[in-house]
Amino acid sequence: MTTLATTGSDSGSAAGDTLTRDALAVLQPGFDGTTAPDWVRRRLGEGLASVALFGRNVVAEEQVTALTAQLRAERDDLLVAIDEESGDVTRLDVRTGSSFPGNHALGAVDDPDLTRAVSRELGRRLAACGVTFDWAPSADVNANADNPVIGVRSFGASTDLVARHTAAWVEGLQSTGVAACTKHFPGHGDTNVDSHHAVPRIDVDADILYERELPPFRAAIAAGTRAVMSAHILVPALDPDRPGTLSRRILTELLRGELGYQGLIVTDGMEMRAISGTYGLEHGVVLAIAAGADAICVGGGLCDEGTVLKLRDALVAAVRSGELAEERLADAAARVRDLAAWTARARGGPDTEPQPEIGLVAARRALRVTRTGTAAPVNTPVYVAQFEPARNIAVGDQTPWGVAADLGRLLPGTAFGSFTGEGAGAAALAAAGGRRIVAVVRDEHRHDWMGSALDTLLAARPDTVVVEMGLPQATPRGALHIATYGAARVCGVAAAEAVLAD
To answer: Which of 268, 294, 406, 443 is catalytic?
Structure first.
């Protein structure tokens, strides 16, 4: 490990050097580009112990491997984190769509051994790229089907189902030496606001929270999850004043005290408006560490050196002013270094036989196919009408989805169009001409315009095939209805096969 002298006003003091190193150690920043910037490499020598990769940092697995090797030339035990849930939220496959179905598809199959195998293969791929820390899985119970940010990221609406698959996912991933990060504590499933934009609020009593939201986290802790991610949600039954990320009652008294968790606590992205828009980024970071968080996720948006230095300096200033106890910052930094040491020891993990097809196997098993009409089978080129809703920030807008590419491969001559908003159905009908239509939707139940578009298509063309790639909450309709339980690339492959197989 290369060690460089700390710059700035703290360079002449051993105590100051320790303080600034601890402040850097608790940050998990992102950066721009597909190679390691000089500023990141320099700060690694000054105490930075983690970096985070986002979609903008990924072109191909070989490039990610080279990037992590560049970084580890400066610090061998570096934590390299990524937000790779598989399914709809993918960074490793950001430009192609995920090779693995997401949680909701795995929950629909309800085979924990399959879930464990999928996460093990994901972990094998991450480890091969030099990634050692995955901000996954989501342990949120999907108690609100209208949730704008969780949805198919959840294993399901049953607490017991979510608990057993969360544990299996953690076990599979960590068997490869990649640390799991179970999220979003104390549970983001029953919200109707996206915390990227504002503070969600869960107004249920403590008994419901303990019975519904917490068991998956207990299961993850029992399975040995190395990290837990906090949620920027206000839960008045637990803390009427501060959201989970900033709540000592939630992070220290509940998670550490009552649930007995001793691993790393990392925040959700601190630029999210639920924190930065209410408390300010720098003050929010200080409050999070004081509340019991150990690591600060930042860099999904703000990914420059100036942000890292401002947060470092805010933590140092808070210790010196007495707002943040020096012992709390030191404890947080020690937990980060402990996890870094575990990943360094575990890197490579036990040799596991690659299972490159396990994702497609799981996606095929997750399909639910319902025939509601008597139309002829599909065996000639079709028109794929994809109804595109606005995507949430967690999913992002870089990742392709749907069935058009795969139907085009299976049925050469297939055409495609994307439609949204009022009049989408009529526009799709006109574009299709006389061709058979395959309508692809995502969370039909959440979008009135999408339901109206299907009404228009089915009234004119009852032989239309409907593929639902979100939560299958709406009543199945169409000559053939295929629910994939997610929009991963492999879900599209499986759905296209099912269109032709019927």
So the answer is: 268
What is the average per-residue pLDDT within 309-332? 97
CA distance 87 to 495: 14
What pLDDT is attached to residue 148?
A: 77
Task: State the Cα–Cα distance between residues 163 and 168, nearest whole angstrom.
Answer: 9
The Cα 158–Cα 164 span in angstroms is 10
> How far, in Å, CA of 168 to CA of 368, rounded?
23
Judge contact between 235 and 250, C-beta under 8 A. yes
The question of whether 111 is a catalytic residue gets the answer no
Query: What does the pLDDT read at residue 373?
Result: 78
Pick the catalytic residue from 196, 232, 447, 481.
196
268 is catalytic: yes
Q: Are strands 480-483 and 368-371 parallel, antiparallel or unpaired?
A: antiparallel
Encoded tokens for 325: 């106890």
pLDDT recorded at residue 398: 87
CB of 135 within 8 A of CB of 181?
yes
Q: Cis peptide before 137, with omega less than 30 degrees from 0?
A: yes
Nearest-angstrom CA–CA distance, 99 and 355: 11
Backbone angles phi, psi at 89, to 5 degrees: -105, 95
Mean pLDDT of 451-475: 97
Predicted confidence at residue 5, as pLDDT, reads: 33
Q: Cβ(249)–Cβ(237) under 8 Å?
A: no
